[in-house]
Design a protein that fits this description.
The complex is a heterotetramer of chains A (about 250), B (about 575), C (about 90) and D (about 120). Chain B folds into 3 domains: about 1-130; about 135-275 and about 560-585, no CATH class; about 280-445 and about 470-545, no CATH class. Helices cover about 70% and strands about 0% of the residues of chain B. Chain B has helices at about 5-20, 30-50, 80-100, 115-130, 135-155, 160-190, 195-205, 210-230, 235-240, 245-270, 280-305, 310-330, 330-365, 380-395, 400-410, 415-440, 470-490, 490-505, 515-540, 540-545, 550-555, 560-580, 580-585; strands at about 55-60, 75-80. In chain B, strands 1-2 form a two-stranded antiparallel sheet. Helix content of chain C is about 90%, strand content about 0%. Chain C has helices spanning about 5-20, 25-45, 50-85. Chain D has helices spanning about 5-25, 25-50, 70-105. Chain D is elongated and about 60 Å long. Chain D has one domain: Helix Hairpins, CATH 1.10.287.3510. In chain D, helix 1 runs antiparallel to helix 2 and helix 2 runs antiparallel to helix 3 (about 70-105). Classes of the chains: A mainly alpha (about 250), B mainly alpha (about 575), C mainly alpha (about 90), D mainly alpha (about 120). Chains in contact: A-B, A-C, A-D, B-D, C-D. Chains B and D meet through helix 5, helix 6 and helix 22 of B and helix 1, helix 2 and helix 3 of D.
């Protein structure tokens, strides 16, 4: 299609959809309304299971099956990216030049790195209590590791980052989540049932039954997945080159 | 028994995780059997559950069974159609894994487990979507099967066409999924629930349909119809299916797009069915119009292809049109017919792709013109290919024939003409390919159009060009065809399918689909028409070759992501316009 | 009390989203997307969703732009390499 | 106006993102626009779950029952959605990189392998 035809199709389609959606907006309950039946039930159940962060209770207990699917998506995209960004027959690796990093930047990165890593771990560990959890903490920890790229250089990063191990870690974390689920089933209740462990004392680290376990599994999964994803892209951006002369 | 429902998801996912956890040392000789065993185990589980699915199984994951009718958990519904789709997806995954056994492309270095792991994840996504009774949960697994499908489609990264097709597939389908999620958010805003049945009740409690119901309907169906490749959401399909590795094509055409149609059936029946949903007449109008358009566009485009996989992909588009008509006519008999048709079609289409894969690996081409007369020695494959083509036409007693006959009778009138024409034209195109490639019949086809995709210079998917066809690659299509035949020929199957579909759909009114003389005649008519068309096209290429009037239609299929997204928006508008009258009155 | 804050955050998000589409250079778009991610994180915090805000901050304003930048770098490097061998 | 503004913003973001994909001249830019489209879903979800005067549904420093809380379900859904979005973006970008390698361009107008 020519650009003009494309614009016309877009104009018609966009205008129609816009009209439809805008017409639907006034029919929605007004913003800030007080009716949230599902939400109210969720809060009730979360408190009954001693989980202070309701969102953690939804993600890792009440709707833990959604999180299982999401874990699958994350896992699939990691394998997918590894497969899609593999080194093909017509490509070779070029060792990157050691980059000269100015001393203040290096110091800054090396100081921030442990802090950021610890922050990530803290955020994962307190998932069932305060805002945050496996998703957020995992991303923070994985990104923190890449401060090494800033602080030292690419080769230093490669040394602390054996990608194969992170791939295995990713898979083990996923298995851990599933095994916890199976334990619920074998324990006599149902898949992913949070009935095996005591619910503990409200607002402590060991509260919420299996919520902290699943949360930790997701934290590990996300951290490993992000490390592998970033590594694959860095690899492409920095190392892999097309074979010259082919 | 219902406690086992989540295992349909958990088992293949665990298998995939273990394959990756095996790490870089895992040899291919271990990875592939593990993949097959896990896939087969899941398939067995799906079948066992299917046989116990009357009355339908209901499982609240995590033991969150409703208290006073209210639950906070996720519900899985294991009824006949859901578990049937899960079983179909599992069996096809198994077939694809066996087909790719040992011969499929060299795995990425030190990642021998990645291909079987992705296939298992694909199975996970499809099973999860099939048994989902919660709308957001359905979205999550919908997204899972899509994500895996993008990665698998682009698996052969050294092929320019493959990566482009996969990217188009990814962008268009992701956009569709986001539209669906917007629709889910609208429904949640209105009803405050996520379980499909409860959303439906919430809509009914709110009163008649209004702009919000329509918007939610359009958004959710846009997501599902993109997957189901209904015109004008279909452009991504030929681009993706034609370039994916053959075992993946078998799954994409055999069951993935059908999941979209299944989703439409499920969501309409549970969410938009009641007095608060979209009136039946409007849904029927919208789906039947889109279905007829899809069938005709798919059939025309199918006829004019020379890239054999692309031709098969368009025939999938055309058949999806028929399935959408079947679902859209909203009668229990049409639902039965469509279910049988989907089962039969899956076997036939997967077998045809499998045969094409053999051609690719043997001759390094999937181009009808380039392969002219070259495959004379492959007699066994030729027989399978022709049988597949006849199955596509709906020759009794193939399952496709029974499904087509039952649906035709249910929709009646001019719509059954569409069924006959579409099945005859698509099967005719496949038979024409068979005559050219396996027999070298007629004059050698000449290149006419400049605006087309050829199948010359494709890389074989096996490590070396095959000198002899491995047994697994011929046994699999043969079994698939046998399965398709069994759906139509074994009387019990049709009765079971009819029982399962009516139990889940209409509830109470049981139907029993069976062969009728009229159905047999229509099936024979389609087959004879297909044979005639193929014979004419081979003997007299001129009047059946490229026609000027198809040129604009071909130019729409431009391979341009922007075009496809623009059409997706236009399609959503069309859907809204078609369903609008009931809201206004 | 919250309302003006919510309105401002919403308008900020809408403006950033428009800018992210209007900026045609992918490298600059990545930066605008990072700003959009932050704006969204602010909006989510104002809407009392600190969990989502936090993950949006980590993903939307760091991870996604980073991936975009790396892709741009890869694509540019190829184009430069092509220019050199010609 | 306030009662529908957040919804309208979500609609605006979604359509703007679609416009961006259709008119994009660079596939990386198109993937970025897709990420914009997706942010519409987060905005809509959280807007739907907001409650006037509500606080975050986290009870580590709020006495349960003392104040109304906003809907936690949509937050959990949005959280899932954010992660899904990032992974899909990563996968699509990986495909864009391969497209640039195999086609030598990332301009969708110049890709002409698949047509007809």
């Amino acid at each position: 299609m020519t650009r003009r035809v494309r614009r016309w199709v877009l104009a018609v389609g966009g205008a129609g959809l816009a009209a439809l959606l805008v017409a639907a907006c006034p029919a929605l309950p007004p913003f800030g309304g007080a009716t949230h039946p599902y939400g109210d039930r969720v809060v009730h159940e979360s408190l009954a299971r001693q989980t202070a962060n309701t969102i953690a209770s939804v993600n890792f207990d009440q709707r833990a099956f959604d999180t299982l699917g999401e874990l699958g998506i994350l896992f699939a995209s990691v394998i997918g990216t590894v497969v899609l960004l593999r080194q093909t027959r017509d490509e070779r690796r070029a060792a990157p030049e050691p980059a000269a990093v100015s001393l203040p930047v290096r110091r800054y990165a090396l100081i921030v790195l442990p802090v950021a890593l610890l922050t990530g771990l803290y955020v994962v560990a307190h998932g069932q209590l305060s805002p945050g959890g496996g998703f957020q903490g995992g991303v923070v920890a994985a990104t923190a590791l890449h401060l090494l790229y800033l602080g030292a250089d690419y080769r230093a990063l490669e040394n602390v980052r054996p990608i194969g191990l992170y791939e295995v870690g990713d898979a083990l974390a996923a298995s851990g989540y599933l095994v916890t689920g199976f334990a619920g089933l074998l324990g006599g209740t149902a898949f992913l049932a949070n009935t095996l462990l005591p619910y503990g004392t409200f607002n402590t680290l060991a509260s919420g039954g299996t919520v902290p376990l699943l949360n930790a599994a997701i934290g590990m999964e996300v951290a490993c997945a992000v490390v592998v994803l970033l590594a694959r892209f860095l690899d492409q951006a920095v190392e892999i080159e097309k074979e010259s002369g082919s | 028994m219902n406690h086992l429902l989540p295992l349909l998801v958990a088992a293949p996912l665990l298998g995939a995780a273990l394959l990756v956890a095996g790490g870089r040392r895992l040899p291919r000789a271990v990875a592939e059997p593990v993949g097959c065993v896990v896939s087969a185990g899941t398939a067995a589980l799906a079948i066992v559950l299917l046989l116990n699915s009357s009355p339908p199984l209901v499982e609240w994951v995590g033991g969150w069974a409703p208290k006073d009718g209210e639950s906070v958990g996720i519900v899985l519904v294991g009824d006949g159609p859901g578990l049937g789709m899960a079983a179909l997806a599992s069996l096809l995954t198994l077939a694809a894994l066996v087909y790719s056994w040992r011969y499929f492309d060299e795995p990425p270095r030190r990642h021998a487990g990645s291909f079987p792991a992705l296939m298992l994840l694909f199975q996970t996504g499809m099973c999860g979507f099939a048994v989902a009774g919660d709308l957001f949960d359905a979205f999550v697994f919908f997204e899972l099967m899509s994500v895996v499908a993008y990665a698998l489609t682009g698996h052969r990264v050294e092929e320019a066409k493959a990566v482009q097709g996969a990217l188009t597939f990814g962008v268009v389908n992701s956009l569709g999924a986001y539209a669906m999620l917007l629709g889910i958010a609208l429904l949640y805003a209105r009803t405050g629930e996520l379980a499909m049945v409860k959303i439906g009740r919430g809509l009914d409690a709110h009163g008649g349909p209004d702009a919000l119901t329509l918007a939610a309907f359009v958004l959710v169906l846009t997501g599902l119809l993109v997957k189901a490749a209904a015109v004008p959401f279909h452009f991504w399909l030929p681009d993706a299916h034609a370039v994916a590795p053959t075992p993946v094509c078998m799954l994409l055409s055999g069951v993935l797009v059908e999941m979209g149609a299944y989703g439409v059936w499920r969501v309409y029946g549970t969410v938009f069915d009641g007095p608060g949903g979209i009136p039946a007449a409007d849904v029927e109008r919208a789906l039947v119009v889109l279905g007829v358009l899809t069938g005709l566009v798919g059939a025309v485009m199918c006829w004019y292809q020379r890239h054999i996989k692309r031709l098969l992909a368009y025939s999938t588009v055309a058949h999806m049109g028929l399935f959408v008509i079947g679902i859209g006519s909203l009668t229990p008999e049409a639902d039965d017919g469509t279910a049988l048709y989907i089962l039969g079609h899956a076997g036939v289409k997967a077998a045809l792709f499998a045969c094409t894969g053999i051609l690719l690996d043997r001759y390094g081409s999937v181009d009808e013109h380039a392969l002219y007369g070259r495959a004379r020695s492959l007699r066994g494959v030729a027989v399978l290919f022709v049988l597949g083509a006849l199955g596509l036409a709906g020759l009794p007693p193939f399952g496709t024939g029974l499904g087509k006959a039952v649906t035709e009778e249910a929709v009646g009138g001019p719509l059954s003409v569409v069924f006959v024409v579409v099945s005859a034209v698509t099967a005719g195109a496949v038979l024409r390919v068979a005559a050219h490639v396996f027999l070298g019949a007629g004059p050698e086809p000449r290149d006419v159009s400049a605006y087309e995709t050829t199948g010359i210079r494709e890389e074989p998917e096996t490590r070396h060009r095959l000198s002899r066809v491995p047994d697994t690659m011929t046994v699999v299509p043969a079994l698939l065809l046998a399965g398709s035949l069994a759906v139509g020929a074994v009387p019990g199957v049709a009765r079971l399918v009819g029982h399962a579909v009516s139990e889940a759909g209409s509830g109470g009114a049981f139907t029993s689909p069976h062969w009728t003389p009229a159905g047999v005649l229509l099936g024979l008519l389609s087959t004879v028409l297909a044979l005639g068309l193929a014979a004419l096209a081979v003997s007299r290429p001129e009047p059946f070759g490229e026609q000027p009037w198809t040129e604009p239609l071909r130019r729409l299929q431009s391979g341009h992501i922007g075009d496809y997204v623009a059409w997706t928006l236009a399609g959503a508008t069309l859907l809204g316009a078609l369903a609008l009258p009931g809201i206004l009155s | 009390m919250d309302d003006p804050l919510i309105v401002v955050a919403l308008l900020l998000v809408a403006a950033c989203a428009t800018a992210a589409v209007a900026v045609r250079d992918p490298e600059r778009q990545a930066l605008v997307l990072a700003v959009l991610g932050t704006a969204l994180a602010v909006l989510f915090t104002v809407l009392q969703a600190p969990d989502v805000g936090l993950s949006q901050l980590a993903v939307g304003s760091a991870l996604t732009p980073l991936l975009l930048m790396l892709s741009v770098r890869k694509v540019r490097r190829r184009e430069r390499g092509k220019g050199r061998t010609r | 106006m306030m009662s529908v503004l957040p919804y309208l913003v979500a609609v605006w973001i979604f359509l703007t993102g679609c416009y961006g994909i259709v008119t994009s001249r660079n596939l990386i830019h198109a993937v970025g626009c897709l990420a914009v489209c997706q942010s519409a879903t987060y905005v809509l979800l959280l807007a739907v779950g907001y409650r006037d005067g509500g606080t975050a549904p986290v009870f580590s420093d709020v006495e349960p029952g003392s104040r109304p809380v906003v809907d936690p379900v949509v937050q959990a859904l949005a959280l899932t959605d954010v992660v899904v979005g990032a992974t899909v973006t990563a996968l699509l970008l990986a495909l864009v990189i391969q497209v640039s390698k195999r086609h030598g361009t990332v301009d969708p107008d110049e890709l002409s392998e698949l047509r007809g």
